[in-house]
Amino acid sequence: MRPEDLQLLTTPGTVAVSGDLVLVSITTPDLEKNTYRGGLHRVFPDGTTTPWTHGDRDNAQRISPDGRSVAFLRVSGKSKPQLYVAPVDGGEPRRLTDLPLGAGAPVWSPDSSRIAFVARVPEAGRYGTTDEGPEAEAPRRITRLDYRFDDVGFLADRRPRLHVVSLDGEVIEVTDGSYDVSDPAWLDDSTLVFVAPRDLGVVETLHCDLYSVPAAGGAVSLFVRGAGEVSMPFVANSSLYWLGTEFTGIDAVARNHGLWRSGLDGSAPVRLTDAETVDVERLSGQPVADAEGVLLVVRNRGALELRRIPFDGGPGEVLAGTSAAVRSFATDGSTVVAVVSTPDSPGQVEFVGTGVRTAFSSVSAREVVELSGSASDGYPVHGWLVLPEGEGPHPVVMAVHGGPFMYHSWGFFDEAQVYASAGYAVVLPNPRGSAGYGQSHGQAVIGKFGTVDVDDVLSLLDVALARPDCDAERVGVMGGSYGGFMTSWLSAHHGERFKAAWSERAVNAWDSFSGSSDIGYFFTDAYCGTDPEAQRVMSPLTYVEKINLPFAVVHSEQDWRCPLEQAQRMFVALKRRGVEAEMLIFPGEGHELTRSGQPRHRRQRFDAVLEWWGRYLKS
């Protein structure tokens, strides 16, 4: 895969099924127009497909319970996503909303007569509600720590509100915007349940609860008090289920999400999955139920497994995703479909249990090899090696993932494929701190950044370098976010092992991160503790005088997760010492540049990465 091959990647997204109707959303980068395109495609049981809609970008499709209509979000040009509905037997989609900041994903009522969704409503005079530009807006008065969020922006002047729309387009605002709402579900045809911060967000909190409200509007009532985070509620088997974690105070990091249940009367919640061994992947979508249990995706040693959890709990049986990554899934109670990504495919729609998968256009992929070994303390290490063509020995790039409570997976990874196609062997470690290896594995780095995680990544690198097809004399290190932190740290403490470094959207100094990041006010204390000296010891910038190798500082201008100042401080410190350093800044991008940034910027970044490694590893 070459950088320009981004536009050849057809990636399936959300999927829906009802009887013989299976719909999947498709996304393809358009480098010429610098946007993403894709509509809904129908998938037939033999794996063939045909376009079902022809919008610029249609997604989040949901088939009504009565099987007669499909609701979905449509983005036209640079407009905001709006809610549309179309009959399943054909016909032109009708737009149901025209909201200044767009609508959220649709949730059908049980009787198929209405749709609930969440949408941000702007204050008058802001976000395009007048003809004047942002520079003419009044100042924002900020009194809380949770006042902004990466890739969203400022929050208090556009709070999300719960809405209900009828099929004739009549929209009702069910909540008033005085608190955040998310993840609505229908308890019955007249009552909704939704997620909101503890005590409706009177003060900053990381805890969430479930609240109920009449669908026609009215008083909001506490329904179930959560044990930590709460998300994705749904009704099945005469009970209310949701995903959640359990913690006290700000100790929310590196917590496995599990399946929870309560009665429809709001009775005491029960966790149905083991907190240590079962970690539900919310990015793969809303859990759903069939007659035998709840379907959801579990993170397990780099696999994203579609499992069916019995209604009374347990680890569940694996339905799909062995040595693969289930990105989305759906069932109508009899047919189960899933979007499954593999090392050589961004995703195919699988009819689970039949072996039938679709075939979307893609690119050729390089071989992926599983690696395992032991760290110096005997702890098992695990990851992957993506190999270039030929016998080698090849120059090596170790790429550390972000998070840290995330993972490299068995799914298709465009970055590793681009680097391998350019001739580099790519090492992908999942060190302690990563997700999918047990909650204790994820929490092993709390208060210990730069210790066991470093041991793990270097130990896995040694496993790769012991192979004859990897050149131990030509090794580079790179990563973004926590991976950028690790790149900076390794460059300072183990720089002799690498020829050059590419540190992207990194955390370099916890002191300023605490006050400048959207999550810094709790994240730093939760991972590093409150002692300023401990935070200093775990900050790569503290050791900048030890960095002597060529060093690329890469960042997005509008990154609010790891703000630009983290890059600037590192770059200035390196240049003042005379280190061969460069800074690359992407205008208009946030923290998610490499995954969902503008296609041209993604292409330009790939070109820059390959130029950097060509300079230092190819000679």
UniProtKB/TrEMBL annotation:
Gene Ontology biological-process entries: proteolysis
Keyword list, A-Z: Hydrolase, Protease, Serine protease
Molecular-function GO terms, alphabetical: serine-type endopeptidase activity
Residue stretches making up the Peptidase S9 prolyl oligopeptidase catalytic domain: 410-618
Highest taxon, organism lineage: Bacteria
Protein name, as recorded: S9 family peptidase
